[in-house]
Amino acid sequence: MHLWLRKFWHLLGNAIPIIYYFSSLSSKKAAFIMFIIFLCVFVLDVLRLIYHPFNHWFLNHFGILVKEKEKHAITGSTYYFLAISITIFFFPKNIATCAILYLTLGDPIAAIVGHYLPLTPIFKQKTLGGSLANFFTCLIIGVCFFPFIIALLGAITATLAELFSPIDDAISIPLCSALVLSIL
């Protein structure tokens, strides 16, 4: 149940790239707004980590949305808003939107499928089922923005970033994908 609630929370993150894509906001203004949100979330995370009563309150009210390893560390939301602000700032709207959707759709679908239909473990706690689900989700997203070959390479990049990233995949998926998409 916790997995589903956490992933539903992550799926709500799709509102940001969709609103950005259809808005008339410039990339600089949108990135600035996302950076302000990042700073707020970061400050709350830091306060939560240094002031234990606040962390206790936070975990009592929102703990179901937090991974076990994030209960006493920076949450994925902080990384998410940082990556979103950087991606929007440095890349054109279609590339940024696609790369962010790789994260907000591909990653939670990979986690759900990987949990219920793992097929076989392939790297750390990642599974073939989850990686295939991530790849096909990202491929479908990619073809909405780009020709098939570019979408294919973008989906491969997002899948590899989710699978092998040494840093939080909320940062690696959109940034690596956007970089590859912009080169193509």
From TrEMBL:
Statement: the UniProt record of this protein carries the keyword Membrane: yes
GO terms assigned for molecular function: ATP-dependent diacylglycerol kinase activity
Source superkingdom: Bacteria
Keywords, ordered alphabetically: Kinase, Membrane, Transferase, Transmembrane, Transmembrane helix
Keyword Membrane: yes
Matches recorded under InterPro entries: Dgk1-like
TM region(s), chain numbering: 30-51, 72-93, 99-119, 131-156
Protein name: Dolichol kinase
Source organism of the structure: Desulfofervidus auxilii
